Amino acid sequence: VPMVAPGNVQVHVINSTLAKVHWDPVPLKTVRGHLQGYKVYYWKVQSLSRRSRRHVEKKILTFRGNKTFGMLPGLEPYSSYKLNVRVVNGKGEGPASPDKVFKTPEGVPSSPSFLKITNPTLDSLTLEWGLPTHPNGVLTSYILKFQPINNTHELGPLVEIRIPANESSLILKNLNYSTRYKFYFNAQTSVGSGSQITEEAVTIMDE
């Protein structure tokens, strides 16, 4: 098998889900056989928004021939990763380069895990929601938009409310009685808004 590990491994993080890795080729005489390519082993060490550590699944990408760089797609935003590089010949893999640590920046969050609308009164509705399954960063706020829908399914004026990130419920007051409302709800990080969840609810007709 090859004798030495690739040197001078560098990682360039392009965005929250993509990184580029560079390495110096090994001297051909140390390959001790036919150079087939290089393998990059990479794995997520932890999410920076959640401190949970679970079973680490190593991923492997193979770059054929004498390439000295490769792209690592499909990374998770706001996470800490490690990687190393090995050279491959027909017999197997050489030793691994020293582990290199890199971090991906924040991304936009996934949609809130649920939006539940309860306790209808004449002029109010109560909203409850769950954190996004993948915050992909530090949540800065939630954005709630809502509008009335009339009997012919025409949409009325849209109202927008910004809610602090540490809240998980809200009582909406001063609504019209016996009116259907449509709600659009999403979470934000400093990067931007995540995908929204929609729901409809009706205030009651009379007490």
Automatic annotation (TrEMBL):
CDD domains the record matches: FN3
Q: What are the entry keywords?
A: Disulfide bond, Immunoglobulin domain, Repeat
Pfam families, per this entry? fn3 (PF00041)
Q: Does the keyword Disulfide bond apply?
A: yes
Keyword Disulfide bond in record: yes
Limits of the Fibronectin type-III domain: 5-107, 111-207
Q: Which superkingdom is the protein from?
A: Eukaryota
User: Which protein, by its recorded name, is this?
Assistant: NRCAM protein
